[in-house]
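Hello,

Our lab assistant flagged a job as stuck in the queue for most of the afternoon. It eventually completed. Since we weren't sure the result was trustworthy after the delay, we are filing this so someone can double-check. Below is the sequence as submitted and the structure that was eventually returned. Let us know if re-running is recommended.
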Amino acid sequence: MLQGAVGSVRLVESPAGAVVEKRMADPLRHDTEVLALRALRHTDLPVPRLVEVRPGTILMTLMPGERLDGMSADARLDGLRASTALLRRLHEVPPPPGLPPAPDDALIIRRYREAGGPPLPLVVPPPTHAPVFCHGDWTAGNLLATDGTITAVIDWEAAHLGDPLREVSRAAWGATRDDPRALRAVADAYGADLALVHAWSAIHAAELWLWFSEAGPPEYLERLTADLVRWPEGCGAVA
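-- returned structure --
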């Protein structure tokens, strides 16, 4: 098994050699990944190539490189900085028809409060850009690199049409959970205003808390809850 938070991913043998098999029970996630990869196949972005698509299953090429989340803190941070050039290019790609809409942030806030999460300054920032093609989960676990060069961006099942700053902020805030330097590093590398990027942090915190509360594991929820009780010092502070 290679990875997979929302499905199963493994290497399988095909007539052309080893390929990645990804299985997803959610038809929307399956169809979104297929739609995104088809839309990106003629770009210079390093993404897997579709080999075969079946109901609930996608076969795609095995991409080179090591996941950033398995690297040292400095190498991971350098990789995230380097990845922002690719993220900018993605945001310039014309989004394919049928791409899902952005997450409903008002609904995230309501569900979070109803679930009893720690108090957070939850306000949906006003849009500052027109919606763009977003990956939806631009994290160290979905970026592969070799010798400091990003060799692949994987896991496109959360792709959507959304605010580019929300996406940059999600990438930055998620990395900040392990490295407080990440928020400023990612924002600066992308060329985004740090205050505008930080304004989304509480939304991402609430979204992640909901994910852990529903999907676990319990120890992740406990750690995040303890951090959010100390907001903003626990996580999300501008460093």
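-- support follow-up --
The delay was a queue issue, not a problem with the job. The result is valid. Residues 50 and 60 are 4 Å apart (CA to CA). The longest strand covers residues 8-14.
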